[in-house]
Amino acid sequence: MQKVFDITHKVAETDATVLITGETGTGKDLIARALHYTGPRKEARFVAQNCAALPETLLESELFGHRRGAFTGAHADKKGLFELANGGTIFLDEIGETDPSMQVRLLRVLQDGEVRPLGSSETVQCSVRVVAATHREIRREVDEGRFREDLYYRMRVVEIRIPPLRERREDVPALAHHFLDKVSPRMGRKLTGFTNAAMDRLIAYEWPGNVRELENEIERISALAGHDDEAIGIEMLSEHIRGPGPGSAIGLSPPSAVPERDMNRAVDELKRDMIIESMRFSGSKTRAAERLGIPRQSLQKMIKRLEITQAELAPVEK
Ligand SMILES: Nc1ncnc2c1ncn2[C@@H]1O[C@H](COP(=O)(O)OP(=O)(O)OP(=O)(O)O)[C@@H](O)[C@H]1O
Ligand SMILES: [Mg+2]
Q1: Whole-prediction pTM value?
Q2: Which fold, 2-163?
Q3: Per-residue pLDDT at 262 exceeds 70
Protein backbone atom coordinates (compact mmCIF):
# COMPACT_ATOMS: atom_id res chain seq x y z
CA MET A 1 0.00 0.00 0.00
CA GLN A 2 2.87 2.31 0.89
CA LYS A 3 4.47 1.71 -2.51
CA VAL A 4 1.21 2.55 -4.25
CA PHE A 5 0.86 5.75 -2.17
CA ASP A 6 4.44 6.78 -2.95
CA ILE A 7 3.90 6.51 -6.71
CA THR A 8 0.52 8.23 -6.37
CA HIS A 9 2.01 11.24 -4.62
CA LYS A 10 4.85 11.55 -7.11
CA VAL A 11 2.54 11.29 -10.11
CA ALA A 12 -0.12 13.59 -8.63
CA GLU A 13 2.18 16.57 -9.14
CA THR A 14 2.35 15.88 -12.88
CA ASP A 15 -0.11 15.83 -15.76
CA ALA A 16 0.88 12.33 -16.84
CA THR A 17 -1.94 10.04 -17.96
CA VAL A 18 -2.33 7.26 -15.44
CA LEU A 19 -3.76 3.78 -15.86
CA ILE A 20 -4.80 2.16 -12.59
CA THR A 21 -5.19 -1.60 -12.64
CA GLY A 22 -6.34 -3.96 -9.93
CA GLU A 23 -9.05 -6.44 -9.03
CA THR A 24 -12.43 -5.27 -7.84
CA GLY A 25 -12.36 -3.55 -4.44
CA THR A 26 -8.61 -2.92 -4.36
CA GLY A 27 -8.95 0.88 -4.21
CA LYS A 28 -8.77 2.11 -7.81
CA ASP A 29 -11.40 4.79 -7.20
CA LEU A 30 -9.61 5.95 -4.09
CA ILE A 31 -6.28 6.32 -5.93
CA ALA A 32 -7.91 8.15 -8.84
CA ARG A 33 -9.35 10.70 -6.40
CA ALA A 34 -6.06 10.98 -4.54
CA LEU A 35 -4.30 11.77 -7.83
CA HIS A 36 -6.66 14.68 -8.35
CA TYR A 37 -7.12 16.03 -4.83
CA THR A 38 -3.43 16.00 -3.89
CA GLY A 39 -2.27 17.54 -7.17
CA PRO A 40 -2.18 21.07 -8.63
CA ARG A 41 -5.56 20.58 -10.32
CA LYS A 42 -7.43 20.08 -7.04
CA GLU A 43 -9.32 23.39 -7.27
CA ALA A 44 -10.80 22.37 -10.63
CA ARG A 45 -13.30 19.58 -11.16
CA PHE A 46 -12.86 15.86 -10.84
CA VAL A 47 -15.38 14.08 -13.03
CA ALA A 48 -15.79 10.33 -13.20
CA GLN A 49 -17.50 8.21 -15.81
CA ASN A 50 -17.97 4.47 -15.68
CA CYS A 51 -17.44 3.41 -19.29
CA ALA A 52 -19.23 0.10 -18.75
CA ALA A 53 -22.43 1.79 -17.56
CA LEU A 54 -23.67 3.26 -20.85
CA PRO A 55 -24.24 2.07 -24.43
CA GLU A 56 -21.77 3.55 -26.88
CA THR A 57 -23.68 6.51 -28.30
CA LEU A 58 -24.76 7.69 -24.87
CA LEU A 59 -21.23 7.34 -23.58
CA GLU A 60 -19.92 9.40 -26.50
CA SER A 61 -22.44 12.10 -25.81
CA GLU A 62 -21.61 12.05 -22.08
CA LEU A 63 -17.88 12.35 -22.66
CA PHE A 64 -17.71 14.63 -25.70
CA GLY A 65 -21.07 16.42 -25.56
CA HIS A 66 -23.48 16.97 -28.44
CA ARG A 67 -25.12 19.67 -30.49
CA ARG A 68 -28.84 20.10 -30.62
CA GLY A 69 -30.34 17.69 -33.14
CA ALA A 70 -27.28 15.42 -33.28
CA PHE A 71 -29.56 12.47 -32.64
CA THR A 72 -33.17 11.79 -31.76
CA GLY A 73 -33.77 13.27 -28.32
CA ALA A 74 -30.88 15.75 -28.45
CA HIS A 75 -33.11 18.78 -27.80
CA ALA A 76 -30.36 21.15 -26.78
CA ASP A 77 -26.60 21.54 -26.85
CA LYS A 78 -24.88 19.64 -24.10
CA LYS A 79 -21.35 19.95 -22.84
CA GLY A 80 -19.36 16.76 -22.47
CA LEU A 81 -17.43 15.71 -19.38
CA PHE A 82 -14.09 16.50 -21.04
CA GLU A 83 -15.22 20.10 -21.39
CA LEU A 84 -16.65 20.23 -17.88
CA ALA A 85 -13.43 18.86 -16.45
CA ASN A 86 -11.37 21.54 -18.19
CA GLY A 87 -8.43 22.36 -15.95
CA GLY A 88 -9.22 19.34 -13.79
CA THR A 89 -9.24 15.58 -14.05
CA ILE A 90 -11.45 13.09 -15.85
CA PHE A 91 -11.60 9.57 -14.47
CA LEU A 92 -12.50 6.95 -17.07
CA ASP A 93 -13.44 3.93 -14.99
CA GLU A 94 -13.68 0.46 -16.57
CA ILE A 95 -11.86 1.66 -19.68
CA GLY A 96 -11.34 -2.01 -20.62
CA GLU A 97 -15.05 -2.28 -21.44
CA THR A 98 -15.07 0.30 -24.27
CA ASP A 99 -15.54 -0.86 -27.86
CA PRO A 100 -13.08 -0.20 -30.69
CA SER A 101 -14.69 2.92 -32.12
CA MET A 102 -14.78 4.56 -28.68
CA GLN A 103 -11.14 3.63 -28.24
CA VAL A 104 -10.25 5.44 -31.48
CA ARG A 105 -12.05 8.57 -30.30
CA LEU A 106 -10.34 8.49 -26.93
CA LEU A 107 -6.97 8.07 -28.59
CA ARG A 108 -7.64 11.20 -30.65
CA VAL A 109 -8.59 13.22 -27.58
CA LEU A 110 -5.48 12.11 -25.74
CA GLN A 111 -3.23 12.92 -28.68
CA ASP A 112 -4.73 16.25 -29.72
CA GLY A 113 -6.14 17.58 -26.47
CA GLU A 114 -9.41 18.48 -28.18
CA VAL A 115 -12.88 17.01 -28.44
CA ARG A 116 -15.56 17.23 -31.07
CA PRO A 117 -19.11 17.09 -29.74
CA LEU A 118 -21.53 14.79 -31.60
CA GLY A 119 -23.14 16.62 -34.49
CA SER A 120 -20.61 19.43 -34.44
CA SER A 121 -18.05 20.29 -37.08
CA GLU A 122 -15.88 22.21 -34.65
CA THR A 123 -13.54 20.95 -32.02
CA VAL A 124 -13.16 22.27 -28.49
CA GLN A 125 -9.77 22.57 -26.84
CA CYS A 126 -9.55 21.24 -23.33
CA SER A 127 -6.79 20.75 -20.83
CA VAL A 128 -7.77 17.67 -18.92
CA ARG A 129 -5.74 15.23 -16.91
CA VAL A 130 -6.84 11.71 -17.78
CA VAL A 131 -6.89 8.90 -15.25
CA ALA A 132 -8.28 5.53 -16.34
CA ALA A 133 -8.90 2.30 -14.50
CA THR A 134 -9.72 -1.30 -15.28
CA HIS A 135 -10.14 -4.51 -13.33
CA ARG A 136 -9.01 -6.52 -16.38
CA GLU A 137 -5.57 -7.86 -17.24
CA ILE A 138 -5.30 -5.14 -19.84
CA ARG A 139 -2.09 -6.51 -21.39
CA ARG A 140 -3.99 -9.69 -22.21
CA GLU A 141 -6.88 -7.68 -23.66
CA VAL A 142 -4.33 -6.06 -26.00
CA ASP A 143 -2.72 -9.38 -26.94
CA GLU A 144 -6.10 -10.87 -27.71
CA GLY A 145 -7.16 -7.91 -29.83
CA ARG A 146 -9.90 -6.52 -27.59
CA PHE A 147 -8.07 -3.35 -26.63
CA ARG A 148 -6.14 -1.10 -29.03
CA GLU A 149 -2.44 -1.27 -28.46
CA ASP A 150 -1.87 2.40 -29.36
CA LEU A 151 -4.45 3.54 -26.82
CA TYR A 152 -2.97 1.22 -24.23
CA TYR A 153 0.48 2.78 -24.63
CA ARG A 154 -0.99 6.28 -24.66
CA MET A 155 -2.96 5.49 -21.50
CA ARG A 156 -0.30 3.85 -19.43
CA VAL A 157 2.30 6.61 -19.41
CA VAL A 158 2.25 5.64 -15.78
CA GLU A 159 0.63 2.42 -14.65
CA ILE A 160 -0.33 2.01 -11.02
CA ARG A 161 -0.99 -1.64 -10.28
CA ILE A 162 -2.81 -2.18 -6.99
CA PRO A 163 -2.12 -5.72 -5.79
CA PRO A 164 -5.00 -7.84 -4.46
CA LEU A 165 -5.23 -7.84 -0.68
CA ARG A 166 -4.11 -11.48 -0.45
CA GLU A 167 -0.76 -10.42 -1.94
CA ARG A 168 -0.24 -7.81 0.78
CA ARG A 169 -1.64 -9.46 3.86
CA GLU A 170 0.57 -7.22 6.00
CA ASP A 171 -1.90 -4.42 5.16
CA VAL A 172 -4.81 -6.26 6.76
CA PRO A 173 -4.24 -5.20 10.41
CA ALA A 174 -3.87 -1.50 9.57
CA LEU A 175 -6.91 -1.54 7.29
CA ALA A 176 -9.00 -3.51 9.78
CA HIS A 177 -8.18 -1.05 12.58
CA HIS A 178 -8.83 1.90 10.28
CA PHE A 179 -12.30 0.63 9.38
CA LEU A 180 -13.06 -0.29 12.98
CA ASP A 181 -12.06 3.18 14.25
CA LYS A 182 -14.29 4.69 11.62
CA VAL A 183 -17.37 2.55 12.06
CA SER A 184 -17.42 1.58 15.74
CA PRO A 185 -18.14 5.05 17.22
CA ARG A 186 -20.60 5.77 14.42
CA MET A 187 -22.60 2.72 15.45
CA GLY A 188 -22.32 3.54 19.15
CA ARG A 189 -20.01 0.59 19.86
CA LYS A 190 -17.04 0.34 22.24
CA LEU A 191 -15.04 -1.91 19.93
CA THR A 192 -11.39 -0.88 19.87
CA GLY A 193 -9.51 -3.94 18.64
CA PHE A 194 -9.28 -7.60 17.76
CA THR A 195 -8.20 -10.70 19.61
CA ASN A 196 -5.04 -12.28 18.23
CA ALA A 197 -6.99 -15.26 16.99
CA ALA A 198 -9.50 -13.08 15.14
CA MET A 199 -6.75 -11.00 13.54
CA ASP A 200 -4.93 -14.16 12.47
CA ARG A 201 -8.04 -15.30 10.65
CA LEU A 202 -8.48 -11.94 8.96
CA ILE A 203 -4.87 -12.13 7.79
CA ALA A 204 -5.21 -15.71 6.59
CA TYR A 205 -8.43 -15.18 4.62
CA GLU A 206 -8.23 -14.81 0.81
CA TRP A 207 -10.40 -11.66 0.42
CA PRO A 208 -11.70 -12.19 -3.13
CA GLY A 209 -13.54 -8.87 -2.77
CA ASN A 210 -10.35 -7.23 -1.49
CA VAL A 211 -10.45 -4.09 0.67
CA ARG A 212 -14.16 -3.53 0.04
CA GLU A 213 -14.94 -6.98 1.44
CA LEU A 214 -12.83 -6.31 4.53
CA GLU A 215 -14.57 -2.98 5.07
CA ASN A 216 -17.98 -4.66 4.79
CA GLU A 217 -16.96 -7.42 7.19
CA ILE A 218 -15.90 -4.93 9.85
CA GLU A 219 -19.14 -2.99 9.39
CA ARG A 220 -21.15 -6.18 9.70
CA ILE A 221 -19.35 -7.19 12.89
CA SER A 222 -19.82 -3.72 14.38
CA ALA A 223 -23.49 -3.72 13.60
CA LEU A 224 -24.02 -7.11 15.24
CA ALA A 225 -21.72 -6.51 18.23
CA GLY A 226 -23.02 -6.04 21.75
CA HIS A 227 -22.97 -2.60 23.41
CA ASP A 228 -20.18 -3.60 25.76
CA ASP A 229 -17.99 -5.67 23.45
CA GLU A 230 -14.51 -4.20 23.34
CA ALA A 231 -12.59 -6.62 21.18
CA ILE A 232 -13.61 -8.50 18.07
CA GLY A 233 -13.20 -12.19 18.78
CA ILE A 234 -13.05 -15.03 16.31
CA GLU A 235 -16.66 -15.99 17.07
CA MET A 236 -17.84 -12.65 15.68
CA LEU A 237 -16.32 -13.22 12.24
CA SER A 238 -18.41 -14.45 9.33
CA GLU A 239 -18.33 -18.21 9.14
CA HIS A 240 -16.45 -18.41 5.82
CA ILE A 241 -13.75 -16.12 7.21
CA ARG A 242 -13.54 -17.92 10.54
CA GLY A 243 -12.50 -20.90 8.47
CA PRO A 244 -12.82 -24.63 8.91
CA GLY A 245 -12.35 -26.59 12.12
CA PRO A 246 -10.13 -25.80 15.08
CA GLY A 247 -7.37 -28.10 13.78
CA SER A 248 -6.31 -25.52 11.23
CA ALA A 249 -6.23 -22.64 13.70
CA ILE A 250 -2.75 -23.65 14.80
CA GLY A 251 -1.45 -24.00 11.27
CA LEU A 252 -2.83 -20.63 10.22
CA SER A 253 -1.40 -18.53 13.03
CA PRO A 254 1.77 -16.83 11.86
CA PRO A 255 4.23 -17.33 14.75
CA SER A 256 5.18 -13.65 14.80
CA ALA A 257 1.61 -12.58 15.56
CA VAL A 258 1.91 -13.64 19.21
CA PRO A 259 4.39 -11.75 21.38
CA GLU A 260 6.14 -14.19 23.73
CA ARG A 261 5.28 -12.46 26.97
CA ASP A 262 1.63 -12.88 26.10
CA MET A 263 1.97 -16.63 25.70
CA ASN A 264 -0.41 -17.59 28.46
CA ARG A 265 -3.00 -15.21 27.20
CA ALA A 266 -2.51 -16.35 23.62
CA VAL A 267 -2.83 -20.01 24.62
CA ASP A 268 -6.01 -19.19 26.52
CA GLU A 269 -7.29 -17.33 23.49
CA LEU A 270 -6.58 -20.32 21.31
CA LYS A 271 -8.22 -22.71 23.78
CA ARG A 272 -11.20 -20.44 23.92
CA ASP A 273 -11.56 -20.33 20.15
CA MET A 274 -11.11 -24.07 19.81
CA ILE A 275 -13.70 -24.78 22.48
CA ILE A 276 -16.24 -22.41 20.99
CA GLU A 277 -15.74 -23.80 17.50
CA SER A 278 -15.95 -27.39 18.67
CA MET A 279 -19.07 -26.71 20.68
CA ARG A 280 -20.72 -24.99 17.77
CA PHE A 281 -19.71 -27.77 15.45
CA SER A 282 -20.77 -30.70 17.57
CA GLY A 283 -23.55 -29.16 19.66
CA SER A 284 -22.79 -31.03 22.89
CA LYS A 285 -20.06 -30.99 25.52
CA THR A 286 -19.49 -34.71 25.29
CA ARG A 287 -18.90 -34.67 21.54
CA ALA A 288 -16.91 -31.44 21.68
CA ALA A 289 -14.61 -32.91 24.32
CA GLU A 290 -14.16 -35.99 22.17
CA ARG A 291 -13.25 -33.85 19.18
CA LEU A 292 -10.78 -31.89 21.25
CA GLY A 293 -9.29 -35.05 22.74
CA ILE A 294 -9.83 -33.99 26.37
CA PRO A 295 -12.01 -35.33 29.21
CA ARG A 296 -15.45 -33.81 29.47
CA GLN A 297 -14.73 -32.49 32.97
CA SER A 298 -11.66 -30.62 31.75
CA LEU A 299 -13.73 -29.03 29.05
CA GLN A 300 -16.30 -27.97 31.62
CA LYS A 301 -13.60 -26.47 33.86
CA MET A 302 -12.02 -24.58 31.01
CA ILE A 303 -15.35 -23.13 29.90
CA LYS A 304 -15.79 -21.83 33.43
CA ARG A 305 -12.25 -20.51 33.85
CA LEU A 306 -12.22 -18.81 30.45
CA GLU A 307 -15.64 -17.33 31.17
CA ILE A 308 -17.11 -18.57 27.92
CA THR A 309 -20.77 -17.66 27.86
CA GLN A 310 -23.71 -19.79 26.78
CA ALA A 311 -24.33 -17.34 23.94
CA GLU A 312 -20.83 -17.85 22.59
CA LEU A 313 -21.29 -21.60 22.60
CA ALA A 314 -24.57 -21.52 20.75
CA PRO A 315 -24.49 -21.99 16.98
CA VAL A 316 -24.44 -18.62 15.17
CA GLU A 317 -27.23 -17.73 12.84
CA LYS A 318 -26.11 -16.87 9.34
N1 LIG B 1 -5.83 1.79 1.26
C2 LIG B 1 -7.09 1.99 1.63
N3 LIG B 1 -7.37 2.63 2.78
C4 LIG B 1 -8.65 2.83 3.17
N5 LIG B 1 -9.71 2.44 2.46
C6 LIG B 1 -9.50 1.80 1.30
C7 LIG B 1 -8.18 1.53 0.81
N8 LIG B 1 -8.28 0.89 -0.36
C9 LIG B 1 -9.59 0.74 -0.60
N10 LIG B 1 -10.33 1.29 0.38
C11 LIG B 1 -11.81 1.30 0.47
O12 LIG B 1 -12.30 0.10 -0.10
C13 LIG B 1 -13.49 0.33 -0.84
C14 LIG B 1 -13.29 -0.10 -2.28
O15 LIG B 1 -12.37 0.76 -2.93
P16 LIG B 1 -12.61 1.33 -4.40
O17 LIG B 1 -14.05 1.65 -4.63
O18 LIG B 1 -11.62 2.39 -4.66
O19 LIG B 1 -12.25 -0.01 -5.24
P20 LIG B 1 -12.19 -0.22 -6.83
O21 LIG B 1 -10.86 -0.82 -7.11
O22 LIG B 1 -12.56 1.03 -7.53
O23 LIG B 1 -13.30 -1.36 -7.03
P24 LIG B 1 -14.18 -1.66 -8.35
O25 LIG B 1 -13.26 -2.32 -9.35
O26 LIG B 1 -15.19 -2.64 -7.84
O27 LIG B 1 -14.75 -0.37 -8.82
C28 LIG B 1 -13.79 1.81 -0.71
O29 LIG B 1 -14.73 2.01 0.32
C30 LIG B 1 -12.45 2.41 -0.35
O31 LIG B 1 -12.61 3.58 0.40
MG1 LIG C 1 -14.17 1.51 -8.75
Answers
A1: 0.77
A2: Rossmann fold (3.40.50)
A3: no
